[in-house]
Amino acid sequence: MKISKIITYPVKIGIRNQLLVKVETDEGVYGWGESGLSGREKAVIGAIEHFSEWLVGKPAFQIGSLWQELYRSQYFEGGRVLLAAISAIDIALHDIKGKALKVPVYELLGGMQRNFIPTFATTSAPPGPEMIEQATHLMKVGWKAMRLSPSGHQTKDLYEPREHLSETAKWCTKTREELGSEVVLGIDYHHRLTVAEAASFCQKMPRGTLDFIEEPIRDECPSAYQSLRKLIDIPFAIGEEFASKWQFQPYIENDILQFARIDVCNVGGLTEAMKVAGWCESHYVDMMPHNPLGPICTAASLHFAAAVSNFAWLETRASDFEKHLGFEDSEIFLDQPKLKGSVLPVETKPGLGITIDETLLKRQKFEFWEAPHLRRRDGSITNW
After folding, report:
1. How far apart are CA 44 and CA 33, in angstroms?
2. Is residue 242 in some structural domain?
């Protein structure tokens, strides 16, 4: 079975663009993948078009060998654009092989280790009474882990970190008091803070308020995270931006992260994700996959989660307060993973278990979108 064609679909579904990738074979079996580099889809398409020039005619089953060829057959290897392209292709090849062998993708990854996939949800309201109401509701309907909303996160174009730290800390503390000690609470700062700001935020709350803090600072400098670790004792959830196992290397080997926020659509697909998971297992790090994209990302993440032992929760954006992405009810995705309460049942269909109405998909258009360019009050650029 050989690759015969690779088709890219950069289309807006719901509120955001998705880059879906279809890999076809000469035997009629095809697979679907998804790129995770939101906001830079056209750059990824360029990489896929280049890869397609020599991928066509290659054996579709040789996934590991093709991964090495995709990554290493260039002088300037790596980077988020190339790995997002490799990720989509790798996921689609797993879908093809699963369908051809008539087994779910998790069987290709070592077999099922759990019967369902626990998820964590996220509140959408800014810190305040409504955020606590949402968190209380999520707990009542079954979520045992959730992520709270930081103040200022909803701002369109102005963000002053110091102005929001005390307010967010106050309401995180109140939420913990209201929900009790059993539920897992975390917060995502979207790498907006400095080391000093992140330390100041954490030090404003009683010990035990939060069970994890996600992406408090940017990831380029692992030693900065080591510096922050000396100042706070809250577990770190890091890694959604990492493209390849080599970016995870200093964080795993130096025991910096406690939850690996791996993104199968950015890290290099399922091939690379399984290597990172094994590495994390040797350091007692739990996998906590990043999953804010579309149903193909969710399906691939679900199969990954089913096949690894060191797993905590999969991110879901389909709780009662996060149906804003708009793909859950899309007629394009005829079969896609669906929450059952707070968990995702493990798919048993061959491949990823995704069915797409390609006729409807072709009618969708790409819409230019750019992430907010946030500025401080003095006019300087800050992180989104």
Report:
1. 13
2. yes
Buried b / exposed e over 29-55, threshold 16 CB at 10 Å, is: bbbbbbbbbbebbeebbebbeebbeeb
Give me the pLDDT at residue 108, please: 98
In the numeric block, which tokens belong to residue 67? 């991964």
**pLDDT score recorded for residue 347:** 85
The predicted model scores a pTM of: 0.96
Q: Domain containing 8 — which CATH number?
A: 3.30.390.10
Distance of CA 14 to the CA centre of its chain: 18
How high is the pLDDT of residue 331? 87
Spans of the chain below 70 pLDDT:
153-155, 323-329
Bin 102: left if φ > 0, else alpha if -120 < ψ < 50, else beta: left
Shared-domain flag, residues 164 and 224? yes
Contact assessment for residue 2 and residue 60, using Cβ atoms and an 8 Å cutoff = yes
3-class secondary-structure state, position 11: strand
Residue 210 is part of which domain span?
107-349
Cα-Cα-Cα-Cα dihedral sign, residues 91, 344, 130, 145: negative
pLDDT of residue 192: 94
Residue 371's pLDDT is what?
Answer: 87
* Residue 260: its H or E element: strand 259-260
The CA distances from residue 323 to 7, 149, 318, 319, in Å, are 28, 16, 5, 6
